[in-house]
Amino acid sequence: MIEQFITKIRQYEIRIRKAVNADMRGSFRSVFKGSGVEFADLREYQYGDDVRTIDWNVSAKGHGTFVKIFREEKEQTVFFILDVSGSQQVGHANHSKLDTAKEICGVLALSAIQEASHVGLLCFSDQKEKYIRPSNGMKHGYEVITELYKLKPISSKTNLAEGILFTLNVLKRRSVVIFISDFIDKNYEHNLRALARKHDLVMVHLLDKRETDLPRLGIIPMVDPESNRTVWVNASSPWFRKRVREDFAQVGKKIEQFARQNDINYVAIDSQQDYVEPLVKLFRIRRKK
């Protein structure tokens, strides 16, 4: 029921807001503030300036060292990219990774709306499943939450690169982009790097223990939810179980390393566990940044 979905999102949003305010002794606004800035001017470097603001291209011309001056945009945009492909259907029968992804997206969208941000949404598989242009106001916020609840993806396939490219094309000004996915795909890193350069990117990496801790049921069929291809495996084999765990661990390390190298805020969340503490930890990192 949509009413239960909205009630749950409200309750989690309140929990996270209280935890963030208590932990950081500051306004929840800081979670979404700080990246909505645009270039305004240049001035000569002064002692104490942040070296990260130096414009090396201008400074290299030999007329002195110059730093960029930014001004905060009056209208901050928080844009969500939600992966709704078939691999997100993994999980318990009554609660999949996609269910958790929808909740997290709804909670953060509600938080952003309450801080006067413009909120937009792209749900993507290997095609555009749902796009909502950024806007503000509680009415718009609840429209986003309602569309999340109602969404039933048409395609089960994945093309993260195309979803990222769509976002790059529709967002003209620097925004906070929150990307919620299990990141099970290939050849999307180039576009993701471009997204991180243009926007303030946050990666929420959804995991599920059912992908790594297989039940010991002997030889069983495993169906790829995106290709519908069936493969028979020995789920009781120690060698196979170890290989599955190591493969997923390697993917996770690779994604986390990519985020660190490209100055992207990253958090991994188990879809079957309470996600309040991981999100509070993420916001703590953003506050320090």
Taking all Cα atoms into account, the compactness measure Rg is: 21 Å
What class do helices, strands and sheet pairing give? alpha/beta
In N-to-C order, the SSE pattern is HEHEEEEHEEHHEHEEEHEH
What percentage of the residues does DSSP assign to strands (E)?
Answer: 15-25%
Q: Determine the N-to-C terminus distance.
A: 39 Å
Largest sheet: 6 strands, mixed
The number of helical elements comes to: 8
The strand count comes to 12
Largest beta sheet: strand ordering: 7-6-3-8-9-12
Shape: globular
Helix percent reads 40-55%
List keywords for this structure.
single chain, 289 residues, alpha/beta, 6-stranded mixed beta sheet, two-stranded antiparallel sheet, 8 helices, 25% strand, globular
